[in-house]
């Protein structure tokens, strides 16, 4: 059974965007982090 992947989109200007926050996410299993320079955002998924 395939599970829908969950997405987290963080804009570059967001105060959430920090090394601590991203490492916190990766430790919780959010392993796919993609930078979208065109839209100025970070897409995190699992």
Question: What's the total helix number?
Answer: 1
What is the CA-atom radius of gyration, in angstroms? 11 Å
Counting helices, strands and paired strands, the structural category is: alpha+beta
Order of strands side by side in the largest beta sheet? 1-3-2
Write down the overall mean pLDDT.
Answer: 89
Spell out the key features of this protein.
46 residues; alpha+beta; 3-stranded antiparallel sheet; 33% strand; globular
Could you explain how this protein is built, in words?
- The structure is a single chain.
- A three-stranded antiparallel β-sheet has the order 1-3-2, with no helix packed on it.
- The protein has one helix at 19-27; strands at 7-11, 32-36, 41-45.
- It has a domain at 1-29.
- With 46 residues, the protein is an alpha+beta fold.
- The two termini are 16 Å apart.
